[in-house]
Each structure stands twice: as C-alpha cells, then as structure tokens.
Write a structure and sequence with these properties.
Radius of gyration of chain B: 15 Å
Helix content of chain B: 10-25%
Number of strands of chain A: 10
Helix content of chain A: 40-55%
Largest interface: A-B, 39 and 34 residues
Strand order of the largest sheet of chain A: 9-8-7-6-5-4-3-10
Shape of chain B: globular
CATH topology of chain B: Rossmann fold
CATH superfamily of chain B: Class I glutamine amidotransferase (GATase) domain
Structural class of chain B: alpha/beta
Strand content of chain A: 5-15%
Oligomer: heterodimer
Number of helices of chain B: 5
Structural class of chain A: alpha/beta
Number of helices of chain A: 13
Order of helices and strands of chain A: EEHEHEHHEHEEHEHHHEHEHHH
Chain lengths: 299, 176
C-alpha cells in the first residue's frame, strides 16, 4: 500500500475489487496485439498476454518462462481492457518486471515452469494484484494467505478437456460445504488437514464462500463448457488454448462470452454453439504422463 | 446484497424484458467495452432508453457511468453510449490497476461523514451539462452526479458494505 495525500493505492479492497469487476466474464489468452484486439472485440473482460498458449507449451516442452516484455507491452498498448500476464511460480523478479510493465494482474501460473518448489511469491510485496491456481480449498487458502487477490481452479491447461476443471471446482465447493458443517473446535484440526491458516478456515466456515473471486481455468473449449463451469458455481472463466487453437477464433470467442453471461439459458447456448467450426483437438488426461501434468505444480 | 440489506429485492438483469417492472436499474462496474457489446447484441440500448422514459431510474457505477454518458473521452471507435445523462466521462482516467485507489469523498445528500470511495481503473466526469447536479468531487474531478432520476458514480459503493449511497439512490433518485 502507498499513501499520497488523501488517496491510498494497492489496498486489499482495490486488488480484490478489480476481480469483482471481471465477474461473469471471460479472460482470454493472447500471444500478440492482433489476438488481443480479437478478444476485446469479442467482449473479453481481460486478456492474458503470453508467449505461447498452453497447448503449444505442452507440445514444445522445455522450460516455459515469462513472456518477452515486448509482447506484453504490445498487448497493453493494443487494448483498453485489463491486461494480465504470467510469471513462473516463485519467480518474484519476473513479477517485479511485469508490475513495472504496467500489467493490471499477475498470474503466478503452473502453466510456466516453476523456479521454486517450496515457495510461491510473497504477493503482499506488490501493488499489482495476483491470481493463482488451486485444485482444492487448502491450496486456494495458502495462495490467499500469500496475498493472492483472486484464485482460479486449475483444470489441466492446454488440453481442451474440461474434466479436471470440473473436478477442481467440485472439490473446492465440497470442502467449503464440509467446513460449514463443523463445530468450532473441529476447525483447528480442519486447518491442519487442509494445510491452511486457521483464520481463513474459520472465515470460510462462517461465510460459506471464498473471500476472493474464483474463476475456472484449464480445458474450457466450447460455449457449453464455459456455461457448465458457471453453473457449477465459478465466478467467470479463463479460456486459454480453446479460442486461438480453434477454426474460427473470433466467432468462438464471442460465443463463449455469450454463453458465460447467459449460462442458465440453454436456448442461447444452443444458438451461439451453432457452426463454430472446428474446436481445438482435445487430449485425454490419462494420455498425459504424470510429470507433464501442469496441475501438480504448486505447493 | 446491499439492496437486500435495505429491504429491496434485486434481480440480475440479463435480458431486456427483465426490466419491465423495475423501479430502478443499476448498471454495474466491469469493462464498459464488454458490457456495451453484450448490451448491443441483446438490444439493451433502446430498451433502457424506453424504460427510463417510462419512469425507471438508472444508476451507473464506474463502467455504468461511462455507458450512461452523452460523451465518452478516450472511447473505442465503435463504442456506443446510452447518452442518458448530460456528462462527458473520461475512461481509465487515473491510469492502470496499480493506480487504482481508495479515498474519502463527501457525497452531497449522504449524511454521516465522508464515504469511502473505491476507485478501480476508474473514469472521471470531465464536465456536466446545466441540468446536472454535482454530488461529489475528488482531487478536482467530478466523481458523482445526478440529473433527476439518473445518477452516476465513478467509484464502487457496493464494495464497501456501506449502504448509504444505495439508500440515497432509493430515496432521492428513484421517483425524482
């Protein structure tokens, strides 16, 4: 936080507040200014600037890092909606660089190769807000304790297969429901079992929801996928490879935006799902070797 | 949530016909470009103008304030305004997210001391027409204004848990 005169920047409310403004919307992965414009024109509430989409990262292997600052700057210059960018898990210098480039949100992301296998970035050190991935409630609360102002269930990025995204949102919600049913003395043990701070566990038990916005990510490829995640109770969706790895990105992007807004209206979802061209080719999770599952990254 | 605490029932409006029996409409924060595109696709522009003509009050916060304005400075080329209120609004006036801030603002007609304004990638109101009352200013820029049964705020009262600006909308904007 910094104060000048009567105004204070970088407060928790300002950081979580931006995520609140993105609720009900779609955040799209883009790798250049042209894709960013297509996303903005389609009604994306934000874009994620990166060097390669997860499907390409998966295909090419090797170490995946923060994008070239030139790409981030070009995307920032191209659109007026918020721009997010990814740093590697634990790489606080990449995070410092992204903050200096003027991005609006940093995603400390398992899609990139982690640099620290014990620690995430201390996100309280930054004025820019962070979003982090989670597969369960304990992981979400550990990230929030480190200063994340938004979380996203991970799914399995770059697969076009939404099965892991479904598993993760159900797990988070089941664990929230479980905490709500516990007696006060049980919450201490629950905190130990979840490996999460007691204060946050107690807050969840009392309020029955996460203290920050939770989007769904990892495998969403169709309008119906996006609406499914919304009906399962997430606040919005990230679509990575699903748009620009498909036959008609602009049309598919618009369709996913409409399906996310009207997620309970099957007639609208049917209408926007017509003639979208080819969806990205999906991957079955069982075909991915354990070591290549991005969701396992994060501690 | 704030509305329910004040004893008013709210509905989430996703289609124009859902506005038929409303006394007031709140156009929320978010991205004005994204909201504007969906509004156009689903025919909201004419429907909101019509419903307002038939007596529905409208309050726009942040992106909502941008959409209500007669003129938007730094707009995208194809951005359409509702043009309900005689305001000129500047988008992302304070800069990017790291420049988002909280500040106490005195809001005219809102009793009980200053209100905590949460400004997120906020616009400001650069100028207002003759029929518009300025309700609040911060650092030399207008951040809240009213024109009869229309109100615009560039900050987010819904993020504070403080219901006073919502109360003001119910008491002094609806039916004005």
């Amino acid at each position: 936080m910094s104060e000048s005169g009567s105004t204070t920047t970088g407060t928790g409310r300002v950081k979580t507040g931006l995520a609140e403004m993105l609720k009900g919307g779609v955040i799209m992965d883009v790798v250049n200014a042209e894709q960013a414009k297509i996303a903005e024109d389609a009604g994306a509430v934000a874009v994620m600037a990166l060097e390669r989409v997860p499907a390409d990262i998966r295909a090419s292997g090797g170490v995946a890092r923060m994008a070239d600052p030139t790409i981030v700057e070009q995307v920032v210059a191209a659109v007026s909606i918020p721009v997010m960018a990814k740093c590697r898990i634990g790489h606080f210098v990449e995070a410092q660089v992204l903050q200096s480039l003027g991005v609006d949100y940093i995603d400390e992301s398992e899609v990139l190769t982690p640099v620290d296998e014990e620690h995430h970035v201390n996100k309280w050190d930054f004025a820019v807000p962070f979003v982090c991935g989670c597969r369960n409630l304990g992981e979400a609360l550990r990230r929030i304790a480190e200063g994340a102002a938004m979380v996203r269930t991970k799914g399995e990025p770059g697969t076009g297969n939404v099965v892991e995204a479904v598993r993760h949102i159900r797990t988070v919600h089941d664990e929230i429901a479980w905490l709500k049913g516990l007696r006060p003395e049980q919450l201490f043990t629950a905190a130990k079992d979840l490996q999460a701070p007691y204060d946050l566990v107690k807050w969840i038990a009392e309020n029955g929801k996460l203290p920050v916005v939770n989007f769904s990510a990892g495998g969403i490829a169709t309008p119906a996928d996006a609406a499914l995640m919304m009906q399962l109770g997430c606040d919005g969706v990230f679509v990575g490879s699903g748009i620009f790895k498909s036959g008609d990105p602009s049309k598919r992007a618009k369709a996913i935006v409409e399906a996310t807004t009207h997620f309970e209206d099957a007639e609208i979802i049917a209408r926007v799902s017509r003639n979208l061209g080819e969806a990205m080719v999906g991957i079955n999770i069982s075909d991915i070797p354990d070591a290549e599952r991005m969701q396992e990254r994060g501690w | 949530m704030t509305l329910e605490a004040l004893g008013v029932s709210g509905v989430a409006v996703r289609l124009p016909e859902q506005m038929n029996d409303l006394s007031g409409l709140i156009i929320p924060g978010g991205e004005s470009t994204a909201i504007g595109k969906l509004m156009r696709t689903y025919g909201f522009y004419d429907a909101i103008r019509q419903q307002h003509g038939a007596g529905m009050a409208v309050w726009g916060t942040c992106a909502g304030a941008i959409l209500m304005a007669r003129e938007v400075l730094d707009a995208l080329p194809d951005q359409e305004e509702l043009g309900l209120m005689d305001l000129a609004v500047r988008r992302n006036a304070y800069g990017r997210q790291v420049d988002s801030f909280e500040a106490d603002v005195e809001v005219r007609g809102v009793e009980g001391g200053p209100f905590t304004g949460v400004f997120i990638r906020a616009p400001w109101i650069e100028s207002v027409g003759d029929g518009v009352d300025v309700l609040a200013s911060h650092d030399g820029h207008i951040v809240a204004a009213q024109e009869g049964d229309l109100m615009a705020t560039t900050f987010h009262p819904e993020l504070t848990g403080d219901p006073r600006v919502h109360r003001y909308f119910l008491d002094s904007v609806i039916g004005a």
